[in-house]
Protein backbone atom coordinates (compact mmCIF):
# COMPACT_ATOMS: atom_id res chain seq x y z
CA UNK A 1 0.00 0.00 0.00
CA UNK A 2 1.10 3.51 -0.67
CA UNK A 3 1.52 6.08 2.09
CA UNK A 4 -1.43 8.11 0.78
CA UNK A 5 -3.73 5.12 0.92
CA UNK A 6 -2.60 4.27 4.46
CA UNK A 7 -3.23 7.88 5.53
CA UNK A 8 -6.71 7.90 3.95
CA UNK A 9 -7.63 4.59 5.62
CA UNK A 10 -6.28 5.83 8.97
CA UNK A 11 -8.36 9.03 8.83
CA UNK A 12 -11.55 7.44 7.50
CA UNK A 13 -13.07 6.65 10.93
CA UNK A 14 -12.74 10.32 11.92
CA UNK A 15 -14.51 11.59 8.82
CA UNK A 16 -17.53 9.29 9.00
CA UNK A 17 -20.43 11.35 10.26
CA UNK A 18 -18.92 14.75 9.43
CA UNK A 19 -21.60 17.00 8.05
CA UNK A 20 -24.49 14.94 9.40
CA UNK A 21 -24.42 16.47 12.86
CA UNK A 22 -24.78 13.19 14.72
CA UNK A 23 -26.70 12.65 17.91
CA UNK A 24 -25.87 12.47 21.59
CA UNK A 25 -27.30 9.93 23.98
CA UNK A 26 -29.90 11.57 26.23
CA UNK A 27 -31.28 9.79 29.28
CA UNK A 28 -33.03 11.19 32.30
CA UNK A 29 -35.69 10.94 34.94
CA UNK A 30 -38.96 12.84 35.34
CA UNK A 31 -40.43 13.55 38.76
CA UNK A 32 -43.42 15.49 40.08
CA UNK A 33 -43.06 16.72 43.65
CA UNK A 34 -40.21 14.26 44.14
CA UNK A 35 -42.12 11.19 42.87
CA UNK A 36 -41.34 9.35 39.64
CA UNK A 37 -43.80 9.98 36.79
CA UNK A 38 -44.79 6.82 34.91
CA UNK A 39 -46.27 6.94 31.40
CA UNK A 40 -45.38 10.52 30.48
CA UNK A 41 -44.34 11.71 27.04
CA UNK A 42 -41.11 13.71 26.93
CA UNK A 43 -40.51 15.82 23.82
CA UNK A 44 -37.42 17.93 23.16
CA UNK A 45 -38.46 20.63 20.64
CA UNK A 46 -35.70 22.64 18.92
CA UNK A 47 -35.78 26.13 20.42
CA UNK A 48 -35.12 27.76 17.04
CA UNK A 49 -37.94 25.77 15.41
CA UNK A 50 -35.52 24.08 13.02
CA UNK A 51 -34.47 20.47 13.02
CA UNK A 52 -36.07 17.38 14.44
CA UNK A 53 -37.72 16.92 17.80
CA UNK A 54 -36.50 14.09 20.01
CA UNK A 55 -39.02 11.99 21.92
CA UNK A 56 -39.20 9.50 24.74
CA UNK A 57 -41.55 8.01 27.30
CA UNK A 58 -41.13 7.41 31.01
CA UNK A 59 -41.17 4.04 32.74
CA UNK A 60 -42.41 3.22 36.26
CA UNK A 61 -39.28 4.82 37.74
CA UNK A 62 -39.65 8.00 35.66
CA UNK A 63 -36.69 7.05 33.45
CA UNK A 64 -36.62 7.96 29.76
CA UNK A 65 -34.24 7.89 26.82
CA UNK A 66 -34.69 10.00 23.70
CA UNK A 67 -34.87 8.98 20.06
CA UNK A 68 -34.84 11.09 16.92
CA UNK A 69 -36.39 9.54 13.81
CA UNK A 70 -36.41 6.18 15.64
CA UNK A 71 -32.66 6.38 16.28
CA UNK A 72 -31.19 6.78 19.79
CA UNK A 73 -30.24 10.26 20.92
CA UNK A 74 -30.84 13.91 20.06
CA UNK A 75 -28.97 16.30 17.76
CA UNK A 76 -26.76 19.05 19.17
CA UNK A 77 -28.71 22.21 19.99
CA UNK A 78 -30.98 24.00 22.43
CA UNK A 79 -34.40 22.50 23.18
CA UNK A 80 -37.61 23.39 24.99
CA UNK A 81 -38.72 20.29 26.91
CA UNK A 82 -42.43 19.48 26.92
CA UNK A 83 -43.75 16.82 29.29
CA UNK A 84 -47.32 15.55 29.18
CA UNK A 85 -49.45 12.73 30.48
CA UNK A 86 -53.15 12.36 29.79
CA UNK A 87 -55.95 10.14 30.97
CA UNK A 88 -58.65 9.26 28.48
CA UNK A 89 -61.97 9.96 30.18
CA UNK A 90 -64.41 9.05 27.43
CA UNK A 91 -64.86 6.89 24.41
CA UNK A 92 -64.15 8.25 20.96
CA UNK A 93 -67.27 9.19 19.02
CA UNK A 94 -68.23 6.68 16.40
CA UNK A 95 -68.44 8.01 12.83
CA UNK A 96 -72.26 7.71 12.98
CA UNK A 97 -72.44 9.71 16.26
CA UNK A 98 -70.12 12.36 14.89
CA UNK A 99 -72.11 12.78 11.66
CA UNK A 100 -75.43 12.87 13.53
CA UNK A 101 -74.10 15.54 15.89
CA UNK A 102 -72.77 17.62 12.98
CA UNK A 103 -75.99 17.27 10.97
CA UNK A 104 -78.03 18.40 13.93
CA UNK A 105 -76.02 21.61 14.22
CA UNK A 106 -75.72 22.37 10.48
CA UNK A 107 -78.28 24.55 8.68
CA UNK A 108 -80.13 22.70 5.93
CA UNK A 109 -78.86 25.09 3.26
CA UNK A 110 -75.25 24.60 4.25
CA UNK A 111 -73.07 23.79 1.30
CA UNK A 112 -69.48 22.89 1.84
CA UNK A 113 -67.21 20.02 2.61
CA UNK A 114 -68.65 16.88 4.10
CA UNK A 115 -68.25 16.55 7.87
CA UNK A 116 -65.33 14.52 9.13
CA UNK A 117 -66.50 11.30 10.74
CA UNK A 118 -65.33 10.18 14.15
CA UNK A 119 -63.63 12.23 16.78
CA UNK A 120 -61.10 12.06 19.55
CA UNK A 121 -61.88 10.81 23.00
CA UNK A 122 -62.02 13.35 25.80
CA UNK A 123 -58.86 13.42 27.89
CA UNK A 124 -57.62 15.12 31.04
CA UNK A 125 -54.05 16.24 31.72
CA UNK A 126 -52.47 14.55 34.73
CA UNK A 127 -49.56 17.01 34.98
CA UNK A 128 -49.48 20.78 35.50
CA UNK A 129 -50.34 22.52 32.22
CA UNK A 130 -47.21 24.71 32.16
CA UNK A 131 -45.04 21.67 31.34
CA UNK A 132 -47.14 20.68 28.29
CA UNK A 133 -46.38 23.71 26.10
CA UNK A 134 -43.09 24.96 24.64
CA UNK A 135 -44.16 28.54 25.40
CA UNK A 136 -44.67 27.90 29.14
CA UNK A 137 -42.30 25.07 30.05
CA UNK A 138 -39.49 26.14 32.38
CA UNK A 139 -37.17 23.50 30.90
CA UNK A 140 -34.62 24.57 28.29
CA UNK A 141 -31.85 22.03 27.72
CA UNK A 142 -28.68 22.15 25.63
CA UNK A 143 -27.45 19.00 23.90
CA UNK A 144 -24.87 17.58 24.38
CA UNK A 145 -25.59 17.37 28.09
CA UNK A 146 -23.07 18.55 30.64
CA UNK A 147 -24.07 15.70 32.96
CA UNK A 148 -26.23 12.60 32.69
CA UNK A 149 -28.76 11.40 33.59
CA UNK A 150 -30.82 14.56 33.16
CA UNK A 151 -33.21 15.36 36.03
CA UNK A 152 -36.49 17.01 35.06
CA UNK A 153 -38.08 17.90 38.40
CA UNK A 154 -41.62 19.25 38.13
CA UNK A 155 -43.70 20.76 40.91
CA UNK A 156 -47.47 20.83 41.19
CA UNK A 157 -47.45 24.45 42.37
What does this structure look like?
With 157 residues, this protein is of the alpha+beta class. It has a domain at 23-86 and 128-154: Sandwich (Immunoglobulin-like). The protein is built from two helices and 14 strands. The strands form five sheets. Strands 2, 3, 6 and 14 form a four-stranded mixed beta sheet that branches. A four-stranded antiparallel beta sheet has the order 5-4-10-13, with no helix packed on it. The termini are far apart.
Query: Terminal Cα separation, in Å?
Result: 68 Å
Secondary structure class reads alpha+beta
Oligomer designation: single chain
The tally of strands reads: 14
**What fraction of the residues are assigned to beta strands by DSSP?**
25-35%
Q: Provide the gyration radius in Å.
A: 23 Å
CATH topology of the domain at 23-86 and 128-154: Immunoglobulin-like
CATH architecture descriptor name of the domain at 23-86 and 128-154:
Sandwich
Amino acid sequence: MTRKMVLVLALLPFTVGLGCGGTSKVEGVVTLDGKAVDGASVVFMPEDGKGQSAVGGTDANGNFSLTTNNKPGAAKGSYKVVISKVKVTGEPMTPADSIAKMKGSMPKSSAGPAPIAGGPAKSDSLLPAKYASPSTTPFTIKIPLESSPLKLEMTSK
